[in-house]
Design brief:
single chain; 142 residues; Rossmann fold; 5 strands
Amino acid sequence: MTSGEAMVASDRAQEPNKAKILVVVEDDPDVQFLVEAIFAMDPRFTITAVAASAEEALESPPTSEPGIIVLDHGLAGPLPGLAAAPMLKERAPQAKIIMFTAHAALQARAAREPAIDAFLLKTESDKLLSLAQQLTGLGPPS
């Protein structure tokens, strides 16, 4: 870690109202762009990683930082989002996982999965930011 990286890490540690998006797990580049654009509207969120597959997301180092994981179900690779959620929660126990998918039929299964904190259809993307703000306790920006 360079001294510049240490200063940035130190600055982030002093920002209690700053949440992080730990990982956006989505294989569609257009949806990745949409999620990034949505969270760019609130400077308290920072995207730290984007993964096209659950396997790629699980390669990220474990963290104890609170934040958001936006997780699709239908992903590149053999592991679907619903099956990956408990493993992601184990690697980032303070994170809130939003299952963000086009598969409405998964809502009941997602509701029974304790690792998933919220479920949102991609057709309701206008609700993604407010849902993340609510889950992190940030509320709307002032």
